[in-house]
């Protein structure tokens, strides 16, 4: 019989906010990355809703979205179980991202339009501020939006969807360890280094930075 968690796990109060479904999903992704939700444990939507300070409906909707992402599985009449991610799973997901995302980003060297650079710099600043505050959930959101914005510059919609799916399935586990060790700022700083290399047209430097950036996902398992 699986354990069922009703205890507080340290989730933010979302009472009164709009777009709750998406906010809950993002908060749960961050909780997974931060180790607040335990693989194999069943979590009930009402219990999580109480902690969020909202009704159970948007929590159930968000968890159904995360079931589609492969992060949870529904347990009939009980709730949602966190799907375990093995070392091999994480290594394989990271390898796929390296094969797909690194060359895609590298090809942007010298091809980042000047018009989009300010918005990318803003996202870099958001990630850096979140890192300084030790706010993993806010960092994950800024990180996702930054990398999505870069990928969208390739003009390949399927590439964007594929990488976002891989990000979701990997759960960004590796960011939890740097956050605990005070190294989240270094990960955030790489965003600035990456954009500088792309703007300068330095493909080799961009490839090096992007590869190292993805390796952070493995760090908590090494």
Structural classification: mainly alpha
* Outline type: elongated
Strand sequence of the main sheet, in spatial order?
A: 1-2-4-3
Tell me the span between the first and last alpha carbons.
30 Å
How many domains make up the coordinates? Answer: 2
* SSE succession: EHEHHEEHHHHHHH
Count of β-strands: 4
Mean pLDDT: 84
| Contiguous uncertain segments of 5+ residues | none
Quaternary organisation of the protein chains: single chain
**Cα-based radius of gyration, to the nearest Å:** 18 Å
CATH topology of the largest domain: Four Helix Bundle (Hemerythrin (Met), subunit A)
Task: Give an overview in words.
Helix 4 runs antiparallel to helix 7. 35% of the residues are buried. This protein has a 4-stranded mixed β-sheet. The protein is 64% helix and 5% strand. The protein is elongated, with a radius of gyration of 18 Å. It has 2 domains: 4-82, Arc Repressor Mutant, subunit A (Orthogonal Bundle), CATH 1.10.10.10; 87-219, Four Helix Bundle (Hemerythrin (Met), subunit A). A hairpin with a 3-residue loop joins strand 3 and strand 4. By secondary structure, the protein is mainly alpha-helical.
How is this structure best summarized?
The chain has helices at residues 20-33, 45-52, 56-68, 87-106, 117-133, 136-152, 157-170, 176-181, 184-200, 203-219, and strands at residues 4-5, 42-43, 72-75, 79-82.
